[in-house]
Amino acid sequence: MFALLYDITHVNEEIKKLRFPLGCRSDWHPVPQVQILSDGLTSWLSETGSLTARLQQHCKRFVVQVIGQEEVPADKHEIQVLGNDNNGFIIREVLLWCDDQPWVYARTVIPKTTITNLGQEIEHLGDRPLGAFLFNTEGMTRGVIEVAEFQPGSALFSFAQAISPLPIANIWGRRSVFKISNNALLVQEVFLPAAQAYR
Predict the structure, then answer these.
(1) Residue 157: inside a domain, yes or no?
(2) Residue 91 is inside which H or E element, if any?
(3) Domain coverage including residue 192
């Protein structure tokens, strides 16, 4: 089932159909409060180290594909968890590919004040992984990891099925706030149907 080869042209067509940004609207809860189906999935959702590094351990070819990055409004739940006064945000959405399969959809919400205080590097990552920047920055701290389930009918599940048409009942994601010198950003990562997390 997981040997499916993905047509990047098809994935790009599905991305073009999106009304950016896609978003991560769901009910988020700390890991201990959620009934998760398998120990393997729990391990991925609760990983406190760099997800980028762990993904790279499971594949020979790792690629970041940028879906979009723009200054657009953040969702209310994102503003709330950031504790921000909604003075502007950069939203970055990407796909993380492992061995030519899309494994993770990631959405980062970066307050403009964070960019101002930390410098332009975080805004100009391009196809470089955010995790490499965060986990190599001195003084970085990570908040509580929360998880969410995305079921059929949600926009994110529909997108996941469109680009990764494997039989799966639902998909799971996680989020946490990172801080560097008290400058916050919110990282949300959703495991797509082909991901190692479900195997």
Answers:
(1) yes
(2) strand 89-98
(3) 27-196
Q: What is the DSSP string of 122-168?
A: GG--TTS-HHHHHTTSTTEEE---EEEEE-TTSHHHHHHHHHS----
Per-residue pLDDT tens over the stretch 63-100? 999 999 999 999 999 999 998 777 799 999 999 999 99
pLDDT (mean) for 49-60 = 94
Domain total of the chain: 1
- Amino acid letter for position 58: H
d(CA 163, CA 159): 6
Q: Tell whether 18 is covered by a domain.
A: no
- In a domain, residue 5? The reply is no
* CATH number for 148: 3.40.1410.10
Phi first, then psi, for residue 45 (nearest 5°) are: -65, -35
Give the residue numbers of the binding site for substrate: 92, 130, 189
Measured distance between the N- and C-terminal CA atoms of the chain, rounded to whole angstroms: 10
Binding positions are: 92, 130, 189
- Partnered with residue 24 across adjacent β-strands are none
The answer for 119, left when phi > 0, alpha when psi is -120 to 50, beta otherwise, is: left
Answer whether residue 8 is part of any domain.
no
